[in-house]
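User: Could you check the structure of this?
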Amino acid sequence: MTALTKYDRLEAAGLWRAAPDQQRIDVIVSLGDATLTIKDTRDQALAHWSLAVIARSNPGKRPALFHPEGDTTETLEIPTDEDEMIRAIEKLRKAVERARPKKGRLRGFLTLALLTAGVSAAIFLLPNAVVDQAIKVVPDVKRAEIGNALLTQMQRATGKPCSSPSANPALVALTRRMTLGEEPTYLAVMRAGVKEAIHIPGGVILLSRTMVEDYESPDVLAGYIIAEQVRRETRDPLRHLLESAGLVATLRLLTTSRMPESAIEDHAKQLLTEKRAPLPTPALLARFETLEIPSSTYGYAVDVTGELTLPLIEGDPLAGATQEPVLPDSAWVRLQAICEG
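Assistant: Sure, the predicted structure tokens are below.
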């Protein structure tokens, strides 16, 4: 029995605060496959925290205070009498820590590769080979760490993710609606700096507040999320980082399990400013169809004339079909106000 399955479906009471200027509210905390879910007393989800990035601000003390790693403004207090939940979270945090790559784990592989590769071949092939190896061996826990580090750097330009007690359940509902069986998707609406949408390692997709505020229908926002999901499938975000950071930074990740801070900082800036590559239309249409979301609405949002996105408009898999709404109207209205707090 793993540490995670042992505590499956464990629930406890707690006090959650979305930001320092907001009131703490009574919540129910439950452990899931990869997340800690925070719900209000009406069973409405307020937040999802990845188990890989939960930090504790007062180790060994009670009541226990937790927060997402790198963001101490959002807090969760577990009272002293919820001892089983506190011990469960601590055990899972230790399990995550043990799963992190240890220094020197891949040193033997790299030494062998360097010794056996010819010098002339290594000049051209070694960087790609090392990146390929890193993609294979870096665990999900480390990917989430790297994504969190990138988000922390990007917040210098974007500010912290928008959060509102009334809107957070709608964001959680949208996250569930847009997530299939592959890598989980975690959505964050940013106040500034993000043009449309950006994905980073760990399954996180950052959304511009304009995507939420400027459209009458959530179908447009869903389209931009789909585009980032397809972009993530087309090019692994960790590969994008490593190829941008270079061989030395990749070797450092493999041998010390750490990325240079300068590489994280440079890539954060790159993600906010780089021109996005076009995406394959068949892959986009396939995902629109799977999620049962019309592609034409997104197509017209990208190009109001429809000329540049004609394949998405004419190939809409839901054209003429009855569609389940991405979000109920009431939830969409609340989500549109998520950055007003």
